[in-house]
Structures are given as C-alpha cells and as structure tokens.
Known about the structure:
By secondary structure, this protein is an alpha+beta fold. Helices cover 31% and strands 34% of the residues. The protein is built from nine helices and 16 strands. It is elongated and about 55 Å long. The relative contact order is 0.16.
Amino acid sequence: MERWGIIYCPKGGIIRPQKRWEKIERVLKEQDVEYDMVQSENSKSVERLVKMMVNNGYKTIIVVGGDSALNDAVNCLMQCDKATRDSIALGVIPNGVMNDFAGFWGFKEGEIEQTVGWLKKRRIRRVDLGCIRYANREGERCHRYFLNCVNIGLIAAIMNLRRQTRHLFGSRTLSFFTSFVLMIFQRMEYRMELRINSDTIKRKVMTVCVGSARGYGQTPNAVPYNGMLDVSVVYHPEVTQLLEGLYLFVRGKFLNHRSVHPYRTRELEIVEAKHAMVGVDGRLMHTPEGSYKITIEQEVINFLIPE
C-alpha cells in the first residue's frame, strides 16, 4: 500500500483538537497504514499543504476535515496539469463543521475504523466539479471549483451564521437553532435575474442552490458524476409555508415544497443578484461583481469511495 499524505484540519472551537487526532492515529496504526501527517494552521494553509504533498510525490492525499477543507484541496489539484492530477487519489476522514460531501458517500465522522478500512481498499470514483466564474471588486476574472454546492441568497447567509455560531457554541444542534432564530433578522429575498437552460427568471427570490452533490439537502437528487448541476430556486413563501418547508427539508422532501422550483442544467448564468451572499461548499465568498456563471466539469478528480 502506498504511503498516504494526511492533512489534519482541526475543527474551530474545539478545546482539545489533538485528542481527535490521537483517535485517528490509533486506528491508522491498528490497520497498518503508512502515512505522513501535517496539520493545517488555518483555512488558507490547506491548498499550500496539498501543493507540498503533490510536489513530494504522494499519490494518496487524505483530508481529515470537512467540506471547506475538501474544497481547498480540489482547487489546489485543479491547478496541476491533467497527468499529475490523474495520478492522485483524494480521500476524506470527516472532521468538519459540515461534512455533506463525505456523507453523500456514507462516510460518518464517528466511524473512523470503517472509514480507514474503506480508504485502504483504494476504490476510486472520478467525480465532477462545479465551477463558479466571476469578477471581483478589482474587475479581475476569477473562478472557484466546488464539490458540493453554491448557495446564493438566504441560505448562504444562514450557513455563514451557522459556521460562526458553531465556533461560538461548539454544538451543531445549538448552532442550527441559533442560526434559525437569527434568520428572522436576515434579508429574506433578493431581486434576481437567472438564466437556466431556455428559461429566464426575473423576480424576487429567497435562495438558490446549485448542487453537483446534494447541497445540504437542497438538491437531494444531484449526483457528482453525471455531468449535470441540479438547481433549486426558492421563491419567498408565507410564514406557514416557511415552516412547512423546514419540515419537508428535515424529512428530505425539500423539492416537494410549492415554493421550490427545481432544474437540471450544465450551465447557469446569474445576470443579477444584488446584495445576495454567495457560499461555496459552506464557506462564504466575497460577493461577485456583476453577472457570473456556474458550470460543471465532468469526472475530473479521483475520489476514494466506500466499497
């Protein structure tokens, strides 16, 4: 078995992050995994550490982290030439505030032994990456890849609140309900113009989710290997419909809500979405200036999946 390069990304707000690593380390030793581990100091260091591992010849790179850390890793890998990228397999041991992409495949944070056992089998699936292409405040053309989803509008604002409150309270449940309460004070709708396939939507919209995978429950039918993006456009419901929507969201039936309008496409253009926050794989990004596009690139990353 090839030696793994492991990047350990401690959770923010955790008092003793080393304790979590000690559990993982024990399992790796029990399963005779040879590895080298480096710890990320912050969110900006993951891409630098992935680059270092690529340059040092590691062919298996495991991220111990969540969706944002995986996002950093794939964005670094996409800077490599295709031959180099195709020689590397990326894996995950869930350890983030949000682990939606890992959860899509069945990886669970508390089941370290099972996760390591699956990763050892080195079963590879080539997965898609979405890409948001935009201009920043300086007018420079930029892009960012994503594994899971892009959120535009209210949900991006809520996820940002959830991340902040999770760091503050250290509890997923408490941070979720705190975010839901704080949501009342958020701007609830945004004037948008969207172009999806042959449709043009020009009206007030509450939130848009563009998912290559399940999008934190908002694009539940999306799969990261069909070369398509699922899009959920949510118009502003009444309060009673909002509560119904929350119920359907928890039950995994989000698309059944009357205010949710689903699409499937290879490209989406956001012509206008003034003041709407944008989140990429759960992390808030600087709001793009002017119009921007979201596209899909099919089967560009080798990802280690369960048997």
